[in-house]
Write a structure and sequence with these properties.
By secondary structure, the chain is an alpha/beta fold. The protein has one domain: 2-Layer Sandwich (Transcription Regulator spoIIAA). 39% of the residues lie in helices and 32% in strands. The chain contains four helices and five strands, in the order βαβαβαβαβ. The mean pLDDT is 90.
Length: 117
C-alpha cells in the first residue's frame, strides 16, 4: 500500500472553478499513483452537486486502483450534504486525524494544499 496523501481542501467546493480544480487535483494525484487520499475538510465551507461529482469521481478512480479517499473533519454543512445524499455510506469520515491515518494502515508521506478560490 502506498503512502497517504493529505489534501487540505479550503473554501466552497461548488459549481465552477473550485469543483473542476478538486477533480483535477484528485485525478492528478491518483494518476501519479497516490491512491490513498485523506481530504482535510476542516476549512471547507460548503459543497454542492458539482463538488460531490468531483469527489465521487475521485473515490471511484482511487477504488478502481485499489485505493481509498476519506474525509477528515468535514464541517457540519458538508457532513449533512454527504448524509442526505447517502454518500456517507461510501466515504469514511473522521474527526480525529490519527484515527483517519491509521485507518489506511500506512504512515503519511506528504501534505498537499488546495484552495477553492
Amino acid at each position: 500500500m502506498g503512502a497517504i496523501r493529505v489534501v487540505k481542501v479550503k473554501g466552497r467546493i461548488v459549481l465552477g472553478e473550485a469543483s473542476v480544480a478538486l477533480n483535477e487535483k484528485l485525478q492528478a494525484l491518483i494518476g501519479e499513483g497516490h491512491i490513498q487520499i485523506l481530504l482535510d475538510c476542516s476549512e471547507t465551507e460548503a459543497i454542492d452537486s458539482q463538488g460531490i461529482s468531483a469527489l465521487v469521481r475521485g473515490v471511484i478512480t482511487a477504488s478502481k486502483r485499489g485505493g481509498r479517499v476519506k474525509m477528515l473533519r468535514p464541517s457540519r454543512r458538508v457532513r449533512h450534504v454527504l448524509e442526505i445524499t447517502r454518500l456517507s455510506t461510501f466515504i469514511e469520515m473522521f474527526d480525529d486525524e490519527g484515527a483517519a491515518l491509521s485507518s489506511f494502515t500506512s504512515p503519511p508521506q506528504a501534505q498537499v494544499s488546495f484552495s477553492a478560490g
